[in-house]
Amino acid sequence: MTADPETMESHAARLDWERRVGRPSDAPLAGTAGLPAPVGVVARGGVGHVLLSWDPVPEALGYLVLRADSREGPFEPLDHLGGDVLAVPHPPYADTLTEPGRTYWYRVATWTDGGAGEPSAEPVSGRAGEPVGGPPRLRVAVDAAADPAELPDVWRRMIGAEHFSLLRWDGEGPGGKDVAAEYAEALRIVREEIGVRTVRAHGTFLPENVRVREDGSFDFGGLDETYDRLLALGLRPVVELSFMPRELAAEPGSTVFQYGAINSVPKDWERWGELCRAVTAHLRERYGAEEVAEWEFEVWNEANLEVFWTGTQADYHRLYEVAARAVKGVDERIRVGGPASAAAGWVGPLLEHCRAYDVPIDFVSTHTYGNAPLDFRPQTRSFAEATGRAEPEILWTEWGVTPTHFHRVNDSAFAAPFVLRGMKAALSSTDALAYWVASDHFEELGWPPRLFHGGFGLLTVGNLRKPRFWALALLTRLAGVGGRIPARVGGDGADALVEALATRTPDGATVEALVWNGTLDQSKIEGARALDRIADVVVSGLAPGARYAVTSRRVDRGHGDIHAVWRDLDGGDWPDGEQWERLRAADELPSERLPAVVAESDGSVVVPVDLPMPGIRSLTFTRLS
After folding, report:
1. Which is nearest to 499 in space by CA: 367, 372, 370?
2. Rounded to an integer, what distance in angstroms lies between the CA atom of residue 104 and that of residue 73?
3. Where on the phi/psi map is residue 177: left (φ > 0), alpha (ψ -120 to 50), or beta?
4. 20 to 30 A from 509, CA-CA: which of 101, 195, 355, 622?
């Protein structure tokens, strides 16, 4: 099936009108209008933090926690130094930016991608305390008798990986490494050890992938070679329709990144549509209609940032619509979406546009960093109700602990429980949460200057596993045991500092519990004694009198932290041969056998574990008799 050129031209003319006069004036989708302020706001003082809770507001995408030094204010949003959206997806929230004994006042406001709403009317106060006589104890209650439920694998559907043409990089890279070989190896590792299925990367239309011939036709030979290598690894691409080929760009001199990607609007919108239609048809012919029907086609990257897009929001809507109609003109089954926006922006306006003009959209995509992902279900559900079409999926195609290049948090143990916090929040509200990125082979602002440089990768140059990698590997191990069972946390900091997930095999012979302690507050990257905890992991529903082996794995500043190993070696910028050997020998997450336990007459066992902040504990209970 091909698109009707006259239809494409009429859409382009209408979109040109919209670009001049603005978006249609139809009633906005739910989530973009003003919402009532939260009620039931409560502040409770805890050791090292103040815990905030409130009643959730239907249609809110998230919440801003506001704080002041007095009841009268001024109230300002709490900035936990994540460098991006400050809103959190749900209560409770632990304010760890506190001084012991000092009283703070709080209000909470709803948040949508249109901004913050009115805050709660009455301020509430709280005061953080200091630890007395050791870390507070919490209880993690795992119910192994419960029927297992599905554990959505939002972390395995997709991962980020810079630009795909690194698979064909020719020459020596940072640290004297073979970039193409190590980049491919990094993707193989995340597929085999985490279970990732698809990879999202920038620059489908970079010149090394796509060439415009003199006769105006397109040569996709470079893209073919790139995708051949990716698919040979057992992975599928997310086809990010970006950046603009020089021959199609209105401003060919406007570029971004070390590799000179052109961020311009097209000079000819019809040619942009021809490019999107041609690449879709070519991929379908080369890799098969059934295969490509399983891929996602995402339109552009972060057009709401001037660095990535020279046009307006209306220009992006035009870019999206032309691309979406072109892709669907080749095969209606291929999933297309956007806006691939920074800081959770532009989702509502794109859905409004697609509703008003019957534009195809199968998923919405957006990004955030330094925070758990927000909940866009009110907007996607409202879109489905308003149009009678299927509800778009929600794909966070970039997410991570920081948006800042070369930030030390990327190499830290602090980032490991952050990853688990985000993934747990995403289980009920998203379809994919793609960590950005797999490898420190990353070119945007220049190649890595040293081994540990704060790179975005889960894996270093040389493919050593960082603490963030181990967090995802433990989550994959948890899912591999079986279905999800209840794991309820009670005590000081429950569900805001300390969280848990648990699974069991169908026969109940093995139970896996994953418990972590973390904060969003990046002033605590090196840890904070006041936030350390002890967790009593109580598993009920076991066979009374049965004996269980207990195996522990942990990630903290002394375990699973390859950067700490490097510091102990007093390394320079790059390891020498002997140092590489020692680092590779330490590149593992060993298990520790704890004393076996016997289930009480009520079928319960208790295993206490230290849980520093930052820290993760995995406990495996396996029946022996």
Report:
1. 372
2. 10
3. beta
4. 195
pLDDT digit string (tens) for 86-111?
999 999 999 999 999 999 999 999 99
404 in Cβ contact with 411 (< 8 Å): no
Q: What is the pLDDT at residue 33?
A: 52
Q: What kind and span of H or E run contains 184?
A: helix 179-189
Residue 190 to residues 37, 321, 467, Cα–Cα distance (Å): 42, 33, 14
* Residue 12 pLDDT class (50, 70, 90 cuts): very low
Amino acid identity at 174 = P
- Residue 249 has phi, psi (to 5 degrees) of -90, 135
The residue behind tokens 């009678």 is 388
DSSP element (H, E) containing 8: helix 5-21
What was the pLDDT predicted at 598?
98
Q: How many CB atoms lie within 10 A of CB 10?
A: 11
Coil, strand, or helix at residue 187?
helix
What tokens appear for 199 in the block? Answer: 């990879």
At residue 410's C-alpha, the angle toward residues 502 and 112, to 5°, is 70
Q: Please list the helix, strand and coil fractions of the chain in percent, rounded to the nearest 5, in that order.
A: 30, 30, 45
Instruction: Report the distance separating Cα 220 and Cα 165, nearest Å.
Output: 13
Pick from 68, 109, 105: nearest CA to 91:
109
Burial class (CB in 10 A: 0-12, 13-18, 19+), 217: exposed
Number of C-alpha atoms within 13 angstroms, CB side, residue 264?
20
**Overall average pLDDT of the 426-439 stretch:** 97
Reference 499, options 66, 65, 94, 99; nearest CA is: 94
How deeply is 292 buried, as exposed, middle or buried, from its count of CB atoms within 10 A (0-12, 13-18, 19+)? buried
| Cα distance between the two ends of the chain | 63
Q: Is the peptide bond before 612 cis (omega within 30 degrees of 0)?
A: no
Tokens representing residue 154 in the block:
């939002």
Residue 172: which pLDDT band, with cuts at 50, 70 and 90? confident
Sorted by sequence, the CB contacts under 8 Å of residue 285 that are 6+ apart come out as none
Rg of the chain over all Cα atoms, to the nearest angstrom:
25
d(CA 608, CA 516): 13
Q: How far is CA 281 from CA 1, 263, 284, in A?
A: 10, 24, 5
Helix (H, G, I), strand (E, B) or coil at 434: strand
Query: In angstroms, rounded to a whole number, what is the distance separating the alpha carbons of residues 316 and 312?
Result: 6
Residue 592 pairs in a beta bridge with: 552
| Long-range interactions of 385-392: CB distance < 8 A, separation 24+ | 386/29, 386/355, 387/355, 387/358, 390/362, 392/337, 392/351, 392/361, 392/362, 392/363, 392/364
- CA-based nearest residue to 538, from 13, 142, 40: 142
Residue 178 has pLDDT above 50, yes or no: yes
Per-residue pLDDT at 571: 77
Q: Is 232 exposed, middle or buried (0-12, 13-18, 19+ CB in 10 A)?
A: exposed
What are the pLDDT digits (tens) for 520-549?
999 999 999 999 999 999 999 999 999 999
Tell me which amino acid residue 30 is: A
Strand stretches in 150-209, DSSP E: 158-163, 198-202
pTM greater than the 0.90 cutoff: yes
602 is written with which tokens?
């009520």
